[in-house]
């Protein structure tokens, strides 16, 4: 029996507002995002017809990242991009993560995301199934995990140490 992770919001977030913004994004409510097992991140895979469309989508997302001064953990193989939104400092899921996840959904639609028929009834991936679900055919989530582990303290303000 799998349990759905509870969101773990970053310090300073308004839990009621964050819950309201999170709900429509989750697969349980018809969205396409899932919480990671710790509840500190939202994850989703995006697929397009071609690499060029995928790259255009990633470029549009990167422009939003620049505007919001926030970045995802992501990986790409050919026409598929895996995106994880989380906040590293303070650790957890922030309202900015939720806002950018919503932006990604809008941009994916605008760039012609290919939505498989099986996604009409999406399922929450159980934590114990990690590595066997969607996005894992090319190891995209695992790739993002490995890169994040070696990225250093990308989100810690200058002059402060991560705790």
UniProtKB/TrEMBL annotation:
Spell out the molecular function terms from Gene Ontology. Answer: 4-alpha-hydroxytetrahydrobiopterin dehydratase activity
List the InterPro entries hit by this protein, alphabetically: PCD_sf, Pterin_deHydtase
Q: What is its EC number?
A: 4.2.1.96
Per UniProt, the keywords (alphabetical) are:
Lyase
Q: Output compositional bias ranges, type Low complexity.
A: 114-129
- Where is the stretch described as Disordered? 114-135
Which positions make up the signal peptide?
none
First-level EC class: lyase
Highest taxon, organism lineage: Eukaryota
Its recorded reaction(s) are: (4aS,6R)-4a-hydroxy-L-erythro-5,6,7,8-tetrahydrobiopterin = (6R)-L-erythro-6,7-dihydrobiopterin + H2O
Gene Ontology terms: biological process: tetrahydrobiopterin biosynthetic process
> What's the short name of a Pfam family annotated to this entry?
Pterin_4a
- Assigned protein family: Belongs to the pterin-4-alpha-carbinolamine dehydratase family.
Q: What is this protein called?
A: 4a-hydroxytetrahydrobiopterin dehydratase
The species this protein was found in: Staphylotrichum tortipilum
Classification lineage: Eukaryota, Fungi, Dikarya, Ascomycota, Pezizomycotina
